[in-house]
Queue: 3 jobs
Job 1
Amino acid sequence: MIEGLQSALDPHGPDARVIAQIWWVLLCGAIVVFALVMALATWAAFGRGNRGWLAGHAAVVTGGVAVPALVLFVLLIYTFVAAARMHAEHREAALRIEVVGEQWWWRVHYLDDDGARDFATANEIRIPVGASVELKLVSPDVLHSLWVPSLAGKLDLIPGKDNRLRLRADGAGVHRGQCAEYCGGPHAQMALMVVAEEPEAFERWRARQRASSTQPADESFLAHCASCHTVRGTEALGTLGPDLTHVGSRLSLGAGILPNNTGTLAAWIGSNQHLKPGNLMPEFGTELSGAQLTALAAYLQSLR
């Protein structure tokens, strides 16, 4: 099947449609050329009649040089023209988001109209349907590459350089992105969910994300988690790990490897190295009792 959360052949945005169209045209061109070559080779090996001209100078130059050069030139020009449409179709960005490639998860900062950071989330981007969104791609240490196949092409995150990626979703839905540049460790488990929502639903979500937590922090959270994680509105102000202010509202945990619920939260806190070997978060399965793990997971799940 070509449909799914992460398929370049199931486009849901203008850039993804152009990329899929280019792929189909190049595939069809390759099939036609391959079929022609195989037909001539079969005739040369098993056919009847005069086949000597296939080894002649004119046939070799025409079939081996001129025709391939012409076909490649035509496909190259088509690709350039089609790719140029992606730039022409983009409107002024209605939303700007900074995406930071960490080891091995995605830090996400929504930016205000002045380019300052508005609020933070992690491993999930929500965008309004039909709006042109600009992603500012940043990496503090190693190379990453962000690819959301059903919405746009891929673009690298390079330390010391800010890249910009534009995307737009045609309709509501969930699209899976992936780090497409080997970055060491659990690189293959570094996913990103892009959730496209109707503008009204997106604005409600954004208003909730801007708000600080109204709940007092769990004691176990303050003792074991607050040095690395932030929950706005509490004493937890750590910046090493993801901002957890509204972690309960996210679709997944561990950068896309687990569904988000109380049970998986407890499993992640207690045994994340088993679930995602090599990630930089320590395990707390031996430091917290079962009851403490359950209470801590319930607290985090309540942060919506």
Note: The chain has six helices and twelve strands.
Job 2
Amino acid sequence: MFSEQNFHLVGIGGIGMSGLARLLQNSGKAVTGSDAEASPITEKLKSEKFSIAIPQKAENIPENCDVVVHTLAVDSSNPEIVAAQKRGLKILSYPQALGSFLVDKKVIAVAGTHGKTTTTGLIVAGCLAAGEDISCLVGTNLPMLDGQNARLGKSEWFVIEACEYRRAFLNFNPQVLVVTNAEAEHLDYYKDWADYESAFVEFTQKLPPDGVLVANSHERNLDKIIATAPHFFDAGGVFENFQLKIPGEMNRWNAKLALVVGELLDLDSEKFHEGLANFAGGERRFELRGEFHGAQIFDDYAHHPTEIIATLEAAREKFPDQKITVVYQQHQLDRAAKMLKEIGVSFLDADRVVIPNIYAVRDEASSAAKISGKELAAEIAKSGVEAIFTENFPKTVAWLKANLQKDEVAIVMGAGDVFQISAELLAS
């Protein structure tokens, strides 16, 4: 825990940063924040009485500030970071700050390429149902947490979603490590699969001698990670038939990982099962947003081929006979260029795919990746799925209004700002 009292969070609108802000405030710290622009997250934080400045300027940092925490999306040229350096303030990245906050906790870290958020949420749901007053930080807002993504409980255990981007999770020291799966991702940072795998191996090596790795031995690519662990509990040997509110085979595997954690914590199995069964998912995880003229509108965060496939398999399981339209915004030019063929064949469980654009992120103004939404739509069409390029959000909303029919299902999918489409459609 920090000895300092006053914190300023640069990029407080990030999902992880918003959770850290809540943890700091709930532990008695004074927290201010800033972001480049307003968002649903910053508006929600304002409703929770956080002081948030938009846009980012040097004078946003309070005079009494002790520590400045910044998201990994912010670089050293940010005016608030420059000002903090000039003032000699303590500056930490988000993962460094979270690691410091957790220093005296018993940490359950949930890592993996896909499924981290849902698995973390399932663990929290099971623990709370079984009477374990667990603390947590999850990568989405959850109804069971009153629409927030973090809580401070009285338990000695603290479960966190541990992101591998830029090896961020190496700032944490888990007692229990859950690895959902692993395949090459974030290739704007990692050189290749071997480099990516090495980060998970290094994280597993941080387990203490009595630490435990929980994973599914049937998942490909985990052999070296499993071999590194001091102790391994295999979720692949769990054969319970789960009745979950959230559909899909991947979510049933996520529930098995969560169940093993419940067993490790020696929690009431029946009550833990009830918690898993009642877990309704989180924001933008196959989230039903409403109806438009009888068509159900869902939001989903999937932005990697494996995630797209899993989400659409779950959707087809839930809606076997309905027409499914996906509005898909590819996240990151680099990922789009490197995974074009894999993305192209990811939509086989959809009836049609609408591409509004590609969301450029981080430092992509200088990216060598050259690809357009039109090219992405053409690649998807090669798989036999109807694909339409609509050029921008207004034209996409207009297309949906003209083409969605009663009893159809529309999934607005991606990790960028594509959620604005479902919001505008439903508002109309």
Note: The mean pLDDT is 93.
Job 3
Amino acid sequence: MLELLQIFIDNIAPILLIAAVGYTIGRRLEVDPKPVGRILYNVLSPALVFQSISTSRITGVEVAQIFLVMSLFIVIMGGAGWLIMRGNNRVERASVMLCATCANNGNFGLPLISFAFGPEVFTRAVIVFIAFTIFNYTSGVFIASSGRKSLRQAALNVLFVPAVYAAIAGIIVSFAGFTLPPVLARSVLLVSQASVPMMLLLLGLQLARSAALTRIGVVSVGVGLRLLVSPIVAAALVMLVGLNAPATVAVIMQSSMPVAVATIILASEFELDHQLSLSMIMASTLLSPVTLSILIFLLRRWNPALAL
């Protein structure tokens, strides 16, 4: 119990404190999270992605394995949400499916993994973040639209995700062994270092827009899939594919994060229940410190060498 408490204090409490600052600013100063999100989306996150990949030793085979695991994960979790909610109305079913498949592995996952595990795990967590981002703009859109928008049209959204291009550039630089000029390398490094604290402030700003919980029964199903079922499915998949230890930890951790704030965007655009999506985000974020502390404890016991 003491070790779990220490894990919470060392790794999750800093995230909650910084997010609380964002929450307070959002409430008192009424700061709009959209401009902050745009800066993070278009500048800071791509810099983090490029910096992490270009300076890593991850192989193309490992990247392909991670994407394979994540694609299987999305199919399984989406299918589980559909099966459980097949008797409910279309809006509730789509909301739970989004909850099950869209994890907050940017604002929440990357900072937490940077605190709890070493750089090898963090680099692979960035790859998982990219995979989730791509799936959010394809399968997530497809689920939210409930068939009103073709998968081909949804897939085209990937062409407008800056982090994807940053990942491609990072892979090219890493594999070619190219060294950036100091003026570029230092600029990218400085911008990338700003991404994690900005992610946490943005998380607080976004949560400040949340209201009271609603539809507890439906929310419980979505949150249960997101926080309890997801790590089990992810663990089974990494064993099936045979990922190495750092990638295994990255995939399991990132797959177990609370519901992504991106689900609000999808819910608004495709006329789902906006308040239901907010309730799932709020409930999963509030409960995740418990489940994630236990998960960090178990993964550190499994491979102590990866712990910071």
Note: The chain has one domain: 2-300.
